[in-house]
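Example record

The entry below shows one chain as it appears in the dataset: sequence first, then structure tokens.
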Amino acid sequence: MNFNARLGIVFFAIYAVIYFAFVLISAFWPDVMEQKSFWGLSLSVTSGFGLIAFAFVLSLLYGLMCRTLPNNDSRLNEGSGS
């Protein structure tokens, strides 16, 4: 498995754990999600927007990290004639 695929799986696992926690809290402790947080919005709304922002940050990080090749990547040797 190449670097990009491994990184994608790691980022997906991180996001899945955080999203699973959000779903569990929403399902089993709805009173927690009803609490007011920033600007009078409920915690469910702000944490939902937080999940969206976190996914966006992960996608940017993935794009940047996949752009720069690790030293052991086989694509570095393409076109070198060997």
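Notes for this example: The two ends are 22 Å apart (CA to CA). The chain has a mean pLDDT of 86.
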